[in-house]
Amino acid sequence: MSLERKLKQALDENNQTELEIVFEEIYQSYYKLIYYIVIGIIKNNEDCEDIVNDVFLKAFNNLDKFDTNSSLKSWIVRIAKNESLNLYNQKKKQPITIDNQYINKEQSPNNKFIKLIEEFKSYLTEEELDILIFKINYDLKWKDIASYFNTTTNVVYKKYLNALKKLKQHYKRGDFDE
Questions:
Q1: The whole model's pTM is what?
Q2: pLDDT tens digit string along 24-34?
Q3: 174, exposed or middle or buried, with CB in 10 Å at 0-12, 13-18, 19+?
Q4: φ, ψ for residue 12, nearest 5 deg
Q5: Other beta carbons less than 10 A from residue 71's beta carbon
Q6: Which parts of 43-152 fold into alpha helices (H)?
Q7: Would you put residue 174 in left (φ > 0), alpha (ψ -120 to 50) or beta?
Q8: Measured between alpha carbons, how far is 12 from 68 in angstroms, rounded to an integer?
Q9: pLDDT of residue 96
């Protein structure tokens, strides 16, 4: 039974226990996708965790407003984008402060990852980079990635293969900094 049907049934029966069980499934199913969407907008791990939790809390508290004939995933993604953009716009209005932890990247635990991503940016498109991160780092399904980009799984898969091909070419030429 799909999550939408389970949710509709729990809402129709007004069964709070069943709603909580179904919502736990929803959380497990969409956590990675929502995390990636949020981090893509706000670019800050600490804020990201807070927003992701807020998204699911807001979704749970507003289940009565969910149209059970529409897509649950689209609804939660829309909440995530709205919450992220709200925080992004708030932070944009605030003066920028730089945490000393980020000034010295040599002390960062993700220093190698940061360097790789920065290097990948120089020869991959933003979309190719996003697809690689979605698939490799977050292990999302092709259909979920395609849904995010509003395209087909074949197109996303071809772009993924193209990005890997570009990476291989750069490795063969030795274009990576050590």
A1: 0.50
A2: 998 999 999 99
A3: exposed
A4: -60, -40
A5: 12
A6: 45-61, 72-93, 100-103, 111-121, 126-132, 142-149
A7: left
A8: 10
A9: 36
What is the tally of helices (H) and strands (E) in the chain? 9, 0
DSSP letter assigned to residue 137 = I
The total number of residues shown for the chain amounts to 178
pLDDT digits (tens, 9 = 90+) for 17-67: 888 888 899 899 999 999 999 988 887 777 888 899 999 999 988 887 888
> What b/e readout covers 157-170, taking b as 16+ CB neighbours within 10 angstroms?
eebbeebbeebeeb
Distance from C-alpha of 44 to C-alpha of 39, rounded to nearest angstrom: 6
CB atoms within 10 A of CB 127: 13
Letter for the amino acid at 112?
K
C-beta separation of 38 from 84 below 8 A: yes
DSSP letter for 94, please: S
